[in-house]
UniProtKB/TrEMBL annotation:
This is Periplasmic binding protein domain-containing protein. Keywords: Signal. Its main location: other. It comes from the Bacteria. InterPro entries: Peripla_BP_I, SBP_2_dom.
Amino acid sequence: MRVTARTGKRVLAIAAVALTAIALSACTAKPTDSAASGGANGDIKIGFIVKTNSNPFWVFMQQKAQEEAKKQGVTLITAAGKNDGDIDGQITAIQNMITSGVKAIIVDPNDSTAIIPALQSAQKQGVATFAVDTQVDGNKAVYGTWATDNYKGGVLLGKYVKAAFGKNDAGETPQIALLDYHPGVTVGDQRRTGFLDGFGVKRTDPEVVAAQDTGGDQSQGQQAMENMLQKKPGINVVYSINEPAGRGGATAIADAGKTKAVLLGSIDGSCDGVASVKDGQFTATVMQFPAKMAEMSIDAAVKYIKDGVKPTMPSSGYIDTGTTLITDQAVNGISYKDTTWGAANCWGTK
């Protein structure tokens, strides 16, 4: 269903870029060798662990990691948790990779604090450790991190949604619902806080009328949105942690016949997400660049293994791989790219 600025407000679904792992689950299988031998680096093994293999964001990221490993002439061993939030599966994967003889491990942690002891153990055994997408708490036990500035992405989306709401409303008060993530992951906290700051409200303000965790999952997003609409039928703005949860929320809103009354947007920037903006299902999406995260982290790991040189990190503790707002509806003062550009550049590359 196409929704335009003239038809009313859309749901705001911040899709936190969700990637899936192509690899076998760390809880159900040993890590899998997936790329490259030969050349001067042929004996180098690197582990690459993502949150889960049920989200396209992490599937794409691992594909790009595999491509970079092949380019570098190293062997990539991949693994994932059973689901988003499965920290035990990731810890098991780290232990298995150490046993298999990797010289570096790159991880997108399901829990930014609970992952630290496993990473510290890896370093004590001579394995270099790095992070992508999600910062380890305090940037401890990693030599470098490549990630989206999630707070900045949230602020960008919040500012845009507020401006779009003000442009299209008829004097209504915003009634904001939050399709949140789950506790323990900095990505969720940073994006939600950024969005609220960008919109100009606090979590405790009366404009924020409902919130529920979704784990970044589409079915949970739909159920959460159904629950919130039953309790607060006047919801007219929705923040979602990522596109899967946002799509679930959009389905619930459409089923309730409220698509024209609710703002819909996302953070993610997948090709499907850009198409949803073009089709009018989302108002906007904030694109992330997981291809950069994968390529830059593999390159840094190879250089460290070969030369012993740690990558230089800024004061934030991580390298920001960038964000770009994608929308076909401009508002004053906010920079954006349209969906034609977005389709050609989704997640950094197709």
